[in-house]
Design a protein that fits this description.
single chain, 444 residues, alpha/beta, 37% helix
Length: 444
């Protein structure tokens, strides 16, 4: 494994970063193809054996279970100074904004939850997952600077932004004496090279580390046409949204990757990543099988010729924005997030189930406590003061005051434990049914 510095930091990172979006409970988030903790641990352990010391996760990945899996594995298999861990936070929810939660408070709250999920006192890199159009960038930078000063993160990074946003943010940070973004995690691979227009030159000028995600285009750059029948290929609708529209033009590049791989006697993964390694600091490479991380590690030893690089790049034509960058716009800033940070539910964030529809309806039409107590379903209703009332088949639970705007769906499958309610000053529980809440839970 080869190593390098992460931008202007003193973090010594492997040239391959293990992306951990594929780790987590498949029943608790956006993706149904993620792998369980046992198999996640095997891949993380193998990564460490191969010299990979850089791991990237997020509070949004499978409702925090990715952070939990990664944290436990790294603590079991390595010493704290032997790895670099990065995690990410989402923009404020509309509930938080309505409840008066500031950008600074949101960042502190999210990082505290991530640290609890990871079982760590600090992270090495805390990443702004996507631009928050409803929160002033000053508040974001101030909040991040505060957690740096508090020792909860060593450095800060950003993801899914335009070059002008990164330049504006770092200029303001320099003016105010705040910590600056040292890395950018954008969408960049052989099939999607729009970052080369403005972002790459900016980062080269200011020594900002490029750590792109989707390095293998959700597996498309690692498999030959006709070899796409994997669980993720079948079920990852988000990857289809990013790549299917340009399938025909991308196919020419994929064929050239396969051609060079055959000629060199290596895998397509190695060729695709070897190309990307000539452009960036450390690509974020997902792995749901041992061979995925093994192939990624081998890529650091493969050097492509100038002719091979030109051959791979020649067929590329401009692409429209895809994925987060296509969705996260000012016009839809108030829409519900695709991702969720809650980690107490055993259900996925499908965006269309009965629970979420009930929650959305309740937010639009506030109810009195008396009316609420009559309901015979399960739902969380957010009150104006940031508290929450939970009705479980006639059961009424009042949690007040709960951390304002904290987006924590609660279901009957997940008993409420005190440590899962951050910063609660008081909990009043009435009419509890033993079939939903155990005596041990009530006693605790």
């Amino acid at each position: 494994m080869k190593y390098t510095k992460l931008g202007d930091s003193d973090l010594n990172i492997s040239r391959i970063c293990m992306g951990c979006m594929g780790f987590g409970d498949p029943g608790r988030g956006q993706h149904s193809w993620t792998i369980d903790e046992e198999h996640s641990r095997e891949i993380i352990k193998r990564g460490l054996e191969l010299g990979v010391n850089f791991y990237d996760t997020a509070i949004a990945y499978q409702r925090g279970t990715s952070e939990q899996y990664v944290g436990r594995a790294l603590r079991d298999f390595a010493k704290r100074d032997e790895f670099v861990i990065a995690t990410k936070f989402l923009p404020r929810t509309q509930d938080e904004i309505n409840s008066g939660v500031t950008g600074q408070q949101h960042i502190e709250n999210m990082l505290n939850i991530s640290l609890k999920n990871l079982g760590m006192d600090y992270v090495d890199l805390y990443i702004y997952h996507m631009w928050d159009w409803q929160t002033p960038i000053y508040d974001i930078l101030d909040g991040l600077n505060r957690v740096v000063k508090a020792g909860k993160t060593r450095y800060i990074g950003i993801s899914n932004c335009f070059a002008w946003q990164l330049a504006k943010a770092n200029a303001l940070a320099e003016k105010e004496g705040f910590a600056k973004f040292i890395s950018i995690q954008g969408h960049y691979n052989l099939l999607f090279r729009e970052e080369e227009r403005e972002m790459v030159p900016l980062c080269q000028e200011d020594n900002i580390a490029l750590t792109p995600y989707s390095a293998l285009a959700s597996g498309r750059l690692s498999r030959r046409p006709g070899e796409q029948d994997t669980k993720r290929a079948r079920e990852d609708s988000y990857a289809k949204f990013k790549y299917d529209a340009t399938r025909e033009q991308d196919g020419v590049i994929i064929e050239r990757v396969a051609e060079i791989a055959d000629r060199r006697g290596v895998s397509m993964t190695e060729v695709s990543l070897a190309w990307l390694l000539t452009k960036v600091t450390a690509p974020v490479v997902g792995a749901t099988k041992l061979r995925h991380i093994e192939g990624a590690a081998k890529a650091t030893d493969l050097e492509l010729s100038d002719q091979e690089i030109a051959y791979l790049e020649e067929p590329y034509i401009p692409h429209p924005l895809a994925g987060v960058m296509a969705q996260n716009k000012t016009a839809n800033a108030k829409e519900k997030h695709v991702w969720s940070t809650g980690n107490t539910s055993k259900r996925g964030n499908t965006g269309g189930n009965k629970m979420e529809k009930e929650q959305a309806k309740a937010r639009r039409s506030p109810m009195t406590a008396a009316d609420f107590a009559k309901r015979d379903d399960t739902a969380v209703y957010w009150l104006g003061n940031g508290g929450a009332m939970l009705n479980v088949r006639g059961t009424v639970i009042l949690i007040d005051p709960l951390l304002k705007g904290f987006d924590m769906p609660i279901y009957t499958e997940a008993p409420i434990l005190p440590e899962e309610i951050p910063h609660a000053d008081a909990i009043l529980i009435t009419h509890c049914d033993n079939d939903h809440f155990s005596r041990d839970t009530l006693s605790e």
